[in-house]
Amino acid sequence: MKEDKARKAKRAAAIVEQLKKIYPRARCSLKYSNPHEILVSTILSAQCTDRRVNQVTPELFKKYKTPEAFAYADVNELAVDIHSCGYHNQKAKSIQGANLMIVEEYHGVVPDNMENLLTLPGVGRKTANCVLGEVYDVPSMVIDTHMVRIMNLLGLTTSKDPKKIEMECMDIFDKKDWIRLTHMIIDHGRAVCIARRPQCSMCSLSDLCPSSMA
Ligand code: SF4
C-alpha cells in the first residue's frame, strides 16, 4: 500500500528521534573558522573524504587567509597546494573563481542566500546548502551520497536526483531538524547503513525501514 504524506512525515519524525539518540553529537566534520573557509572546504570535499580535506586545509588557510588571497592567487600554485584532494585543477579554478566573485561582486562577504551562492563558480546546491546551514543557520539539507542511498532505503524517496530528494525531504521532515539530519545520516551511513553492506541486524531504524533485512 502506498504510504501517504502524513504517514511518511510521522515515520520521518520517528526516524529523526532515533537518530538523535544514536548520534547526539553529529555535526559537520569539515574544519573551518569562517564562512569562506567552509566554502573552500566544501568545494574540496567533492569526490574526496572530509578527513583528507581536513589534512590539507590547516596549511592552506595559513597560506591563503582571506577571500582576497584566494581570489588573486596563482591558480597553478593553488592547484599544487590542493593536489591531494583530487580534481585539483578544476577545484583550484572553482575556489579562485568563487572567491573572486565574493570579493568583486559581494563586497568580500560570502552570500547568505541560495540564489546568490549559486552564482559562484563551482558552487551547486550541495555546497550552498552546506554554507547556509553551517554558517548562517538557515534550515537546509545537504544531499550527499549517504543521503541519496539511505533516503531510498528508508523508502522516503524513490529518486536518485539530489534536488528532488531535497525537496521531498523538506516536505516531510520538520524544518528544525534539516541541518542535523544530514550529519546524522552521514554518521549512520559510515557506521551502520554502509553502502553495499548495511548492518540491518544492528540498526536502530530497522523497525522503521522497509528495506530492513533484520
Ligand atoms: S534497516 Fe538496514 S537498510 Fe534500513 S537504515 Fe538500517 S541498515 Fe539501512
Describe this structure in words.
This protein is mainly alpha-helical and 214 residues long. Helices cover 57% and strands 2% of the residues. It has eleven helices and two strands; from the N terminus they run αααααααααααββ. A two-stranded antiparallel sheet has the order 1-2. The longest helix is centred in the N-terminal third of the chain and has 18 residues, at 5-22. The chain binds iron/sulfur cluster (SF4).
Bound molecules: iron/sulfur cluster
Q: Please provide the ordered H/E string of secondary-structure elements.
A: HHHHHHHHHHHEE
Query: Total domains, how many?
Result: 2
Q: Helical percent range?
A: 55-70%
Helix tally equals 11
Instruction: Kindly provide the radius of gyration, computed on alpha-carbon positions and rounded to a whole number of angstroms.
Output: 18 Å
CATH superfamily of the largest domain: Hypothetical protein, domain 2
Determine the N-to-C terminus distance. Answer: 21 Å
Quick recap of the structure?
57% of the residues lie in helices and 2% in strands.
Identify the notable features of this structure and list them briefly.
two-stranded antiparallel sheet; mainly alpha; Endonuclease III, domain 1; 214 residues; 2 strands; binds iron/sulfur cluster; 11 helices; single chain; Endonuclease Iii, domain 2; 2 domains
Secondary-structure map:
Layout: H1 5-22, H2 35-44, H3 50-63, H4 67-71, H5 75-81, H6 88-105, H7 114-117, H8 125-136, H9 145-153, H10 162-172, H11 178-191, E1 193-194, E2 197-198
Iron/sulfur cluster is lined by residues 150, 153-154, 192-193, 198-200, 203, 205-206, 209, 211-212.
